[in-house]
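Hi all, posting the design record for the shared folder.

TITLE: backbone redesign
STEP: 1 of 1
STRUCTURE INPUT:
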């Protein structure tokens, strides 16, 4: 009896399928905890590498100080400025002065809004103007005018809130930028200022000459010189 050789193509296909199956069996599916750990490790690596280039110790220290500055200002306005040093004793009062001004402005527009809202509610309930003398509400205000002023007060009140949030964010940005400037570049406070008298050329148009002439024409003035050491 003659023996039939097996089809070599089928044998190769069977071997390939077995290899794929074994590879799938050996590949372990990543769990949620493992994925979190991997992402955390990648994020941690980004602190020490920039485009696969290892950062030096000086850059790492600058970034650390900058993170401390903006995070502290995020927690407590002015804290980052105090951490950076320098003119913090000027910046901190300005920051809190802005918050105080925003608070007073918010209270005013809130009161303004409530006054017109109260007048509208009174007229809706009793059908006549109230005797309230504030802002002239007891006079002949129309309903449309009252509604317009109420909306005007509410819009300015909400705008004050947005500006206050922006002021808070500006405090954080200033702390970060100031920290970067102080630590990455050497900005010295040694600044000299000098004022001295000088003579400035006075250029005038000469009729018939077709050009400007400044011969023997000077004007006394002052020259200011800044010197950064």
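Okay, here is what came back for every position:
SEQUENCE:
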């Amino acid at each position: 009896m003659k023996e039939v050789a097996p089809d070599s193509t089928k044998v190769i296909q069977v071997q390939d399928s077995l290899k794929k199956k074994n590879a799938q069996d050996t590949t372990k599916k990543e769990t949620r905890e493992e994925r979190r750990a991997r992402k955390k490790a990648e994020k941690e690596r980004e602190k020490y590498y920039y485009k696969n280039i290892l950062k030096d110790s000086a850059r790492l220290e600058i970034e650390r100080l900058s993170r401390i500055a903006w995070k502290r200002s995020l927690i407590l306005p002015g804290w980052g400025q105090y951490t950076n040093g320098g003119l913090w004793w000027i910046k901190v009062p300005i920051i809190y002065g802005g918050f105080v001004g925003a608070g007073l402005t918010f209270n005013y527009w809130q009161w303004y809004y409530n006054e017109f809202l109260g007048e509208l509610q009174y007229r809706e309930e009793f059908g006549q103007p109230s005797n309230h003398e504030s802002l002239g509400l007891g006079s002949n205000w129309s309903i449309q005018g009252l509604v317009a002023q109420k909306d005007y007060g509410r819009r300015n009140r909400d705008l004050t809130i947005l500006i206050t949030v922006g002021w808070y964010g500006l405090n954080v940005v200033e702390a970060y930028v100031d920290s970067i400037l102080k630590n990455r570049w050497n900005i010295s406070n040694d600044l000299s200022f000098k004022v001295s008298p000088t003579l400035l050329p006075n250029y005038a148009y000469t009729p018939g000459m077709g050009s400007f002439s400044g011969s023997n024409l000077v004007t006394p003035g002052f020259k200011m010189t800044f010197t950064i050491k």
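COMMENT: The longest strand covers residues 191-201.
Let me know if anyone wants the other runs.
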